[in-house]
Amino acid sequence: MDVARVISRILAPILVLLAVGCASVPLDTPKVATFAVEDVAYTRAARGVSDWLGGRSDTQGFYPLTAGLDAFGARLTLMDGAEVSIDAQYFLMKPDNAGLVFAAGLLAAADRGVRVRLLLDDIFTKVDDVDLAMLDDHPKIEVRVFNPISRKGLFVLNYLGNFSLANRRMHNKAFIMDNQIAIVGGRNIAVEYFQLETTGEFIDFDMLSAGPVVKEVSAQFDIYWNHELAVPISALFKAKSPQQIEKAAAGLKEEMLDAGDSIYADAISTPLMKQFYAKALPPYLAQARLLSDEPQKLLEEISPDHQIVAREMREVLLETEEEIFIFTPYFLPGKRGMDFVRQLRAKGIRIILVTNSLATNNHTAVHSHYSRYRKDLLKAGVELWEARADAAKIVAEDGETSLDRLTLHAKGILIDRNRIFVGSLNLDPRSVEINTEMGLLIESPEMGRRMTLNAESRVSATAYRLQLDENDRITWHAIIDGQSVVETSEPQASIWRRISAVLQKVVPESQL
After folding, report:
1. Does 50 fall in a domain?
2. Looking at the structure, do residues 235 and 371 belong to the same domain, yes or no?
3. What pLDDT, in 10s, does the model give residues 159-196?
């Protein structure tokens, strides 16, 4: 047998796999454009918002949702109260207890006649297509998948075969009820975001919002919903029979019986939710605007022209007079970002940066690259803090928890104790350049002051302060159980995690 024939026999199946793997999604699938319902003045939500805002149409109301169970309860409560519409847009949804309860709430609302539009990015959404199709099968529910990967052939080959587009994702997160109330922030739909996980928790942050800004959130939802990259699930998955859909619906009901009722009851019964039901939750009245990237960003070459959220936040930060308090899970500033930090510090701006430690970071490769910026940040005068993995018991409202570790996932910026940014934007190349993002910029001295004071007390209790010693080495400082602790290497990180961080330096920073 000659060499050419051997090579051809080896390459033939590989070429076949690649051919299948490069299958593309029909982005030109016909679909009906739909938009937020405008005539909602008659709804209970409209009357409730008017009462909440004191009858003022020139202002907006906000309330921060810092506790996970409150954030979940708020979503479920809004589902229960919806009369006209629910629009939900998320980077990921999982088929865990949070996803089950969330899906059941959407179905219950649809059964009452509420129109439901569910838009999910494809890559990290783990809900099976058959279950999304089951939701879509309801006459009042429509499900669209954003920038989907072809279901034909192997997922990995499909992803790699269309990498230039598949690598670009919709990272936006928004929940809108009756075009009157919205929740915008960093949480996705999975147990780790809502205090429902038993091994770890993502510390996150959402904003309950009412007033004219909700129309802006709805408008950005409509842009994404009607974009060519939003593909109906019906174009991606065809049920083998009606029985397959019925089986999925029966499975959802059975799993809800096992876990759903207790989770639902806990979520809507928190002290905050009791205040909400009693109409005793005082709003922060403020002015605000929505910052949002356009979905076309994913189809264009990487360019500052399409980095709307990052560009506008840069302009806002340049207006800072005294202080910037930053919470970000991932911090990869690059040369341009470090130059910007130094520019702010040269103006005398105090910068407090809180991010994950190696022990708490759920993306070790990000920490691998972030770690090389730490000394430069400290030398520039940035007050740098890293989350403690054992801080879950401090964050817990009652001081008791069985959680093993905490991960910071909140994306927020507090500026001069007056302006608050909350949204989906991480401070890394992926968020700034590759994915789409959104967030609210709120002007409220009262909320800004309270949130900053709360952040200062929480950070000192739940994070390590990084400093340089006399030998120019990084040290980690904390008060733990009343004792001053100083660490000289990555605290609370296992040997394997430290080795992994070194190995993952090969991952290109531009993709993180």
Report:
1. no
2. no
3. 888 899 999 999 999 999 999 999 999 999 999 999 88
Residues 387 and 472 in one domain: yes
- The domain spanning residue 482 has which CATH number? 3.30.870.10
The yes-or-no answer on residue 416 being catalytic is: yes
In a domain, 24, yes or no: no
Owning domain of residue 382:
288-511
Catalytic hit among 87, 121, 129, 171: 171
Q: Residue 453, class by beta-carbon neighbours within 10 Å (0-12 exposed, 13-18 middle, 19+ buried)? A: exposed
Count: domains in the chain: 2
Radius of gyration of the chain (CA): 24
* Cβ count near 119 (within 10 Å): 21
Residue ending a domain, choose from 226, 246, 277: 277
Does residue 454 belong to any structural domain of this protein?
yes
CA 77 to each of CA 98, 204, 284: distance values in angstroms, whole numbers, following the listed order: 14, 19, 20
Selecting among 178, 204, 390, 428, the annotated active-site residue is: 178
How many angstroms separate the CA atoms of 425 and 431, rounded?
6
Predicted TM-score (pTM) of the model is 0.94
45 φ/ψ sector (left φ>0, alpha ψ -120 to 50, else beta): alpha
Same structural domain for residues 353 and 244? no
Q: Clarify whether residues 403 and 460 are in a common domain.
A: yes
Residue 53 lies in a domain: no
Decide if 173 is catalytic: yes
Q: Catalytic pick from 94, 367, 369, 409?
A: 409
* Cα 72 to Cα 185: distance, rounded to the nearest angstrom: 12
pLDDT at 393: 65
227 tagged catalytic: no
Element (H, E) at 314: helix 308-318
Choice among 121, 129, 136, 173 that is catalytic = 173
The verdict on 136 and 69 lying in the same domain is yes
CB 345 within 8 A of CB 382: yes
Residue where one domain finishes, among candidates 277, 309, 341:
277
Asked if 336 and 375 count as a contact pair (C-beta separation under 8 A), the reply is no
Judged against a pLDDT cut of 90, whether residue 498 lies above it is answered with: yes
Evaluate if residue 6 carries a pLDDT over 70.
no
pLDDT tens sequence across 80-106: 999 999 999 999 999 999 999 999 999
pLDDT in tens, 471-486: 999 999 999 888 999 9
Burial 28-61 (b: 16+ CB within 10 A, else e): eeebeeeebeeebeebebbebbbebbeeeeeebb
Size of the chain in residues: 512
Amino acid at 139: P
